[in-house]
Every structure is written in structure tokens, then in C-alpha cells.
Amino acid sequence: MPLQMVRNDITRMQVDAIVNAANPTLLGGGGVDGAIHRAAGPGLLAECRTLGGCRTGEAKLTGGYNLPCRYVIHTVGPIWRGGQQGERAALTACYRNSLQLAVEQDCETVAFPLISAGVYGYPKAEALQVAVETIEEFLQQQELTVYLVLFDRTVYTISEQLHREIAAFIDDRYVEAHTDSRAEQSRRIAIQQSCPEVFAAPMPAAAPSAPAVDPDLLQAVRQMDESFSQMLLRKIDESGMTDAQCYKRANISRKLFSKIRSDLHYRPSKPTVLAFAIALRLPMDQTRELLCKAGFALSHSSKFDIIVEYFISHGNYDICQVNEALFAFDQSLLGG
């Protein structure tokens, strides 16, 4: 999954590079900055002393020292002053310059904190929006796995209105899966015994004369034998998108997509199937069809399923917004 939101301590992320939300001196401080310096050890501070500080929006590279990463990329986020002092442009530059530096160092994985959302006062919801939009835009051109590390749930919540709407949508459809299976079986047997005529096997009908075969029907029958991989590739062709456009919109890595494309019998995970459905902007009936090819179905006993259904039924196919909502409701994210 090229972009993942995770709850973790960034100093424990086993990636090629982590990003430090530093202050202009690069000599350590509080919050994430202080935690990274403490975990890295004195060698990090010694190297930072040689860099001559860092201006807002820029990024500089050091080694990882005692951290489980090769590099630390230091960037200085903007202080929030009401939003009219170029804060968004500066924050965007932090992410973009850090990502570019990671690519120049041949990094394949990089982890970010939510820059400027702590003592610098940038509103958390807006800070997350800038982070996701900038990272997603960058990943359209680069093959990289990026982790957005949120230390705890309070760092981010979706808008109150969207949260209420999704919660109501879940309440209307959610079914607790606590049915007593033996009681259910006994009830079915009782119904069959009381109404045997309903469950009697139907009499075979006389064989009709063979009608002319509709070409559309023949095509539909052929598609019934498609595998998930074949159906996915057909729908990509029908959409007019290239393979790369599709898997990037689905938050799927090129490596995973290559496996799906080359293996006729590849069995994807449910989040992967639904990510492709979102990327292809499939309506609900076609989403269910694609899921069925992979051996899955949507269920109203799953909050994950209902949340995805909410976005599809509302015509919202922005996978970032879907994943933000899933994250807020503590569900798995879409992607590979």
C-alpha cells in the first residue's frame, strides 16, 4: 500500500527513512523532535551541528544512528498564524522536499509524523489534508511506500458532520452477528416440516425448443468464467485508464499489481478488491460482482463493509477520504 496511516511511535518504524518535524536549529526540542534525538543517541545531534540549521519548508538528511532506519530527514514546518501567512504552501514544501530527498537516497519506505500539528499549532484536520494530498500527488509519479504515523487517535478525527452521517448509516444497517446457529437450524427444520410443499423439489419442465442465442448473452456467459484478475483487467480497459493510473488511484503498489496481472488465479484481500472498485468508480452492483470473483461479499455485519458502501452509494470515490473515515472508525484501510 503506497500510503498508509498507522498508529505507532515513529522512532520504532523499520523503514529506510523517518522524517523529523524539527525546529530551525536542528538541535533537538520537544515532541517528535526530542523523541527522535533521544532514540537516535548523541551521534545524531553531533551531525546536526554540522548542517547549519534549516529554513521552514526545506529538508536536510542525516544518518539514523541508533534508530531502526538508515536516514533521518529533518524538515521545519510552519508555525500556524491563522492560515493567511503562507502556512499551507510551506507545509506542502515540507512533505514534497522530504519525499524528494528520500527518492534521491533510493529509499523505498519513509515514515512521516503529522508535521506542524503539535506545538506549532497547525489545525490537525487541515494538517492531515495537506499531508495526504501532497503525498498522494507525489506518489502519482514515484514508486514509494509512505507511512503517515499518528501517535494516537486524538491526533485526527474526521469532520463531525461526516462522522455523524457515517455513524447513522452504520446504525441503519449494522447487524450483530450473534445468531445461535443451532436455534436457526431448528427453526428452518420446523418451517420445512410445517410447509413441505414450499420446499418440495420442482417438477422438471419440458425441454423447450432451442431459441436463437443472443450475442450479449454469450458474452455474459463467457464473463461468468472470468477470474478476478481477468475481470479486473477488462474493467481497467473499459474505464480508459492505464494500468498505472488504476493501481495508483487504488493505493496499490506496482509490485502487487504485477502479481495480480501475471497470475490468472491470484486471490487478493478484500481491502485490495474494494480499493480497485473505488479506483474504477464501480457502482454497487459491479462492486459486488468484483468481490464475488475474489470470493468475498459485502456484509451488514461488518462496519468496514458498511463504511465503504456509504461512500459508493454517495458517489464519493476519493480513496483518501474513504481511508480517513475507515481510520477514524478504527477499521482496516483500502489498498494492497
Q: How is this structure best described in words?
A:
The protein is of the alpha/beta class. Helices cover 48% and strands 10% of the residues. It contains 15 helices and 6 strands. It has a 6-stranded mixed beta sheet, sandwiched between helices. A hairpin with a 7-residue loop joins strand 3 and strand 4 (71-76). Helix 3 packs across helix 4 (124-139), helix 10 (243-249) crosses helix 12 and helix 12 (270-279) packs antiparallel against helix 13 (284-293). The relative contact order is 0.11.
Q: Termini, distance in Å?
A: 5 Å
- Number of E strands: 6
Report the major sheet. 6 strands, mixed
- Specify Rg, calculated over alpha carbons: 26 Å
Q: pLDDT below 50 for ≥5 consecutive residues: which ranges?
A: 177-181
What's the overall geometry?
globular
Strand ordering within the main sheet: 1-6-5-2-4-3
- Judged by helices, strands and strand pairing, the structural class is alpha/beta
Helix/strand order, N-terminal first: EEHHEEHEHEHHHHHHHHHHH
The averaged pLDDT comes out at 86
- Residue fraction in strands: 5-15%
User: What's the total helix number?
Assistant: 15
Query: What is the helix content?
Result: 40-55%
Topology:
Blueprint: E1 3-7, E2 17-22, H1 31-40, H2 42-48, E3 59-63, E4 71-76, H3 87-104, E5 109-112, H4 124-139, E6 145-150, H5 160-173, H6 181-194, H7 196-199, H8 215-224, H9 228-239, H10 243-249, H11 254-262, H12 270-279, H13 284-293, H14 303-313, H15 319-328
